[in-house]
């Protein structure tokens, strides 16, 4: 039943989906400080998203009481239908960064076992932490006038079977978009049909939605300029600007152009060996690119990421653009 | 399609549902202060809920960083499987109180019309406000060792048609319970198939879940001792201790015993005329009682509400118990 649910036939979106954007945990939180948001980056990213997805004046949509004030300051009379916001269809998914990580790793939620008190408590604690981040991101986007609504995967019936998505209420995501809102999902603790529970990552959520909702392109916002052939801190590290993915999902670097066949292989192997998390990212990105959907991995809050979010690098990658484009190319 | 979804055939719960409890907005927030939680009441209610639903030692499940601290204080080594928490099956639903009300009423979310900027912005603002309350309630429960998980109705695909529930992912609520968690839902802004959007109240959510999940009893925690024959502040106001509901859903007071038929009618009419919100509450409660499910309306954070939560008034109502019991009684 769950499998059917995951592969449900969906009513197509009223207007095609333009972009799924991942706000990487490293880009929007302070990596080395527990449960701390990188406010500066989050604000810059929210402004960029607004520029990429909508026009018209900014209407503050977070009408909560602000710290140190006793009432709510919002000029509702200033909101006219002229300020009506025609946003293009975006989905935002964010990672956890320094939220949830402590709770999940201390309790081993990803390994399952809900009959252990520690895992059960850790599951509750992880969800509290990641949903508190989700709320803050929804708020940040709403303040910039983005009609954002939080869609927590656990609440939306996302479950896994051996860590693959087994069920997910994609219909609610689609309805949310059709009504002109921007859904904001996140990596979450979820129920797993084989091991009881696990962590469902934002990247897996994106791949699943990309398959079903077919966005024009996908943007991963991170804290480095893109994918390098070795850790970016090492001397001589080269940014891989374009990676091609074929029908079988295998990938190779096309820019910088490999001088010889041998060198090409070396780059691939080097990336496998030394960049750790980046290889997982390339694999997820390659699985999306295989569907014919362009993927851009870019540094958050830069002109380069703004270009990617606007879809300006879709046809032709400008020479001065810094980022990694991963695209489908027939063998 | 949505209607089918609402009337879906459910796999029965592994263990019967004991209680659905409503944390009334008036009981857990400060009515006259915007977005302010009544911390004292919320803590007392959380402790009562813990006593009513589980045994064993208290395991703090909110591992978030606390204000003024730079790291997370939780002794995970102290959590053994001996502290494993066998909770009985409860569902918590809370109202909005002083959260969401400002946002919803300023924008008219309940009247629909998402093509108006003000309504759209108000929808976003309302959800931010009510989900921030939900997060704080989940935290308060988790701190008392209740394995609480937030299930936001909007995220769970709850939609309405002319304000009646049109779809709802009850399967996720059931799965959450079966895995030993306590789902925490709330009144929310949702999509409506006729008018675009509306406010789905906690009371309607409870009625819908009571029909499908058949709890043994339902408890409404509020800020007065129960239902009175006139506003409780008026001299001579009498607490209606027991109300009987028949097959057709019509109700009458059985305790205090009406002396004459005329007086009985008068009490009913008086309640209709003067107590406003309470009549809606009795109607919702009567709809639940009609299903054969006892409903108790009690004052939060009192011995009376603790007795109701524990199910101790189910068979026989003690003379010194203050509250209103609404029960099915054949005509």
UniProtKB/TrEMBL annotation, chains A, B:
Residues 18-298 form the Aspartate/glutamate/uridylate kinase domain. Coiled coil: none annotated. One of its GO terms (biological process) is terpenoid biosynthetic process. One of its GO terms (molecular function) is isopentenyl phosphate kinase activity. It catalyses: isopentenyl phosphate + ATP = isopentenyl diphosphate + ADP. The keyword Ribosomal protein does not apply. Substrate binds at residues 96, 101, 202. This is Isopentenyl phosphate kinase. The record marks 31 as: Transition state stabilizer. InterPro entries: AceGlu_kinase-like_sf, Asp/Glu/Uridylate_kinase, Fosfomycin_R_FomA-type. ATP binds at residues 97, 223, 277, 281. Gene3D superfamilies: Acetylglutamate kinase-like (3.40.1160.10). Its EC number is 2.7.4.26. It comes from Spinacia oleracea (Spinach). It comes from the Eukaryota. Keywords: ATP-binding, Isoprene biosynthesis, Kinase, Nucleotide-binding, Transferase. GO terms for cellular component: cytosol. It is an enzyme of class 2 (transferase). Belongs to the isopentenyl phosphate kinase family. The lineage of its organism: Eukaryota, Viridiplantae, Streptophyta, Embryophyta, Tracheophyta.
């Amino acid at each position: 039943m769950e499998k059917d649910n995951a592969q449900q036939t969906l009513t197509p979106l009223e207007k095609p989906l333009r972009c799924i954007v991942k706000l990487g945990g490293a880009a929007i939180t302070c990596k080395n400080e527990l449960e701390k948001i990188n406010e500066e980056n989050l604000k810059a990213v929210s402004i960029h998203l607004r520029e990429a997805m909508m026009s018209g004046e900014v209407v503050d949509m977070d009408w909560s009481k602000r710290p140190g004030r006793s009432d709510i300051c919002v000029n509702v009379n200033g909101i006219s239908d002229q300020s009506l916001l025609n946003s293009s269809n975006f989905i935002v998914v964010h990672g956890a960064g320094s939220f949830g990580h402590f709770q999940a790793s201390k309790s081993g939620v990803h390994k399952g076992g809900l009959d252990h008190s520690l895992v059960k408590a850790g599951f509750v604690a992880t969800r509290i932490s990641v949903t508190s981040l989700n709320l803050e991101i929804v708020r940040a986007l709403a303040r910039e006038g983005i009609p954002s609504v939080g869609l927590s995967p656990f609440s939306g019936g996302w479950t896994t079977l051996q860590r693959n998505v087994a069920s997910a209420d994609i219909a609610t995501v689609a309805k949310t978009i059709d009504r002109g809102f921007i859904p904001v999902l996140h990596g979450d603790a979820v129920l797993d049909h084989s091991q009881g529970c696990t962590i469902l990552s934002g990247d897996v959520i994106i791949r699943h939605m990309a398959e079903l909702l077919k966005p024009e392109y996908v943007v991963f916002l991170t804290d480095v300029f893109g994918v390098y052939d070795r850790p970016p801190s090492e001397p001589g590290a080269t940014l891989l600007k374009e990676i091609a993915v074929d029908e079988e999902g295998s990938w190779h670097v096309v820019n910088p152009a490999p001088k010889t066949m041998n060198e090409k292989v070396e780059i691939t192997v080097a990336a496998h060996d030394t960049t750790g998390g980046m290889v997982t990212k390339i694999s997820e990105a390659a699985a999306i690119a295989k569907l014919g959907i362009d993927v851009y991995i870019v540094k958050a809050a830069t002109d380069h990421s703004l270009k990617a979010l606007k879809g300006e690098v879709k046809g032709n990658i400008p020479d001065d653009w810094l980022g990694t484009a991963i695209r489908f190319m027939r063998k």
